[in-house]
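Propose amino acids for all 345 sites.
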């Protein structure tokens, strides 16, 4: 059996090689630095499976080519599968599996780090001190204790985030069409409009679906409290970038922290420090003093990478042995079927 791993970085090699050694599975692993697309799909020739990440393109055209090349399994080394055309995958008979949970604490803790960096402006203070400037003007923050935090999506990550923010003494409200009882320990479920009106900080923890694309848009931004902060460590497509830029320019949003960006595919995970970046909206965002952008790294801990590699190989083993796989997206998930129209990030 051969697995072709796309968008592979050195850290993917390290954690996948370790997981392979631990599992004892007989498997040839091919690492490709390029992301999967129409242009690179030929690398997968004669592989049994491809392993893809958040920005690989797995649309109908790519799936057709993969099928011709003999590939039969799509292994996502992430939770979200918005970049896979599930209808086409099912039509071609692919096995598609993801890693639904890998250290949700890592992602939630990162969201908290962004909240506090943005609030207490540690990123600005760090730059100042390096230049010998120890003044405090412009660095004023607020105490989290007693503030209202709105959480959109109370799945694994949303609940971890709620637990931590509850520890800071925040009042928590959440919106989720499928209410998770776990969250009730920390706060109250409310309608989306009420959440936006009440929250000092809004944090997004829902998947990118047809129904959630641009959940933060011109209208919902207007519903947010003046001076509220927005944090997105989920998927870039949840936020209408042009609308948040306007809201920042109007001084309505007081701060924005993004670990994900709706057009991140052409920029993230590569070094553009000597290029001209053509994405004007992204560069406008970078220019605001009250915006923090990071390159989709909330998951990036040793714990998460260990889990990702090990569950991905377990999914491969299930596929090769023809035994039921709990992470088989096309078998188990009603949500996958409901939301099967793919959304590019
Ligand atoms: P999860 O499936 O456990 O939870 C998602 C929650 O969102 C569910 O409770 C679901 O009911 C809810 N939801 C669905 N539609 C909604 C809507 N319209 N409005 C509000 N909530 C809605 O997923 P999770 O493990 O908590 O992950 C959440 C998201 O975080 C993933 O979909 C992924 O996009 C993102 N993520 C990002 C990183 C990163 O490194 N930045 C890492 C892992 C996951």
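Proposal:
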């Amino acid at each position: 059996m051969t697995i072709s791993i796309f968008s592979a970085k050195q850290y993917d090699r390290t954690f996948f090689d370790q997981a392979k050694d631990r599992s004892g599975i007989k498997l040839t692993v091919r690492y490709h630095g390029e992301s999967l697309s129409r242009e690179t799909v030929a690398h997968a020739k004669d592989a049994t499976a491809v392993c893809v990440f958040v920005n690989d393109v797995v649309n109908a055209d790519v799936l057709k080519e993969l099928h011709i090349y003999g590939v039969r399994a799509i292994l996502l080394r992430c939770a979200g599968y918005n970049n896979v055309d599930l209808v086409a995958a099912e039509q071609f008979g692919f096995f598609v599996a993801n890693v639904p949970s890998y250290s949700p604490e890592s992602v939630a803790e990162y969201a908290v780090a962004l909240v506090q960096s943005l609030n207490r402006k540690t990123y600005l203070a760090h730059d100042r001190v390096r230049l010998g400037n120890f003044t405090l003007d412009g660095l004023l923050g607020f105490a989290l204790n007693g503030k209202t935090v709105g959480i959109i999506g109370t799945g694994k990550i949303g609940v971890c985030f709620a637990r931590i923010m509850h520890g800071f003494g925040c009042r928590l409200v959440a919106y989720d069409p499928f209410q998770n009882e776990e969250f009730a320990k920390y706060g109250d479920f409310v309608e989306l409009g009420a959440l936006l009106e009440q929250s000092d900080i809004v944090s997004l923890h829902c998947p990118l679906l047809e129904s959630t694309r641009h959940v933060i848009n011109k209208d919902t931004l207007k519903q947010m409290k003046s001076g509220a902060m927005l944090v997105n460590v989920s998927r870039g497509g949840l936020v209408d970038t042009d609308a948040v830029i306007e809201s920042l320019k109007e001084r309505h949003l007081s701060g924005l922290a993004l670990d994900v960006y709706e057009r991140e595919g052409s920029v993230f995970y590569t070094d553009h420090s000597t290029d001209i970046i053509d994405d004007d909206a992204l560069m406008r965002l970078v220019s605001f003093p009250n915006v923090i952008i990071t390159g989709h790294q909330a998951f990036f801990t040793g714990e998460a990478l260990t889990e990702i590699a090990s569950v991905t190989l377990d999914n491969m083993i299930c596929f090769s042995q023809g035994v039921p796989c709990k992470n088989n997206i096309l078998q188990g998930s009603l949500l996958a079927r409901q939301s099967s129209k793919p959304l590019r990030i």
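Confidence is low (pLDDT under 50) at residues 333-345. DSSP finds 13 helices and twelve strands in the chain.
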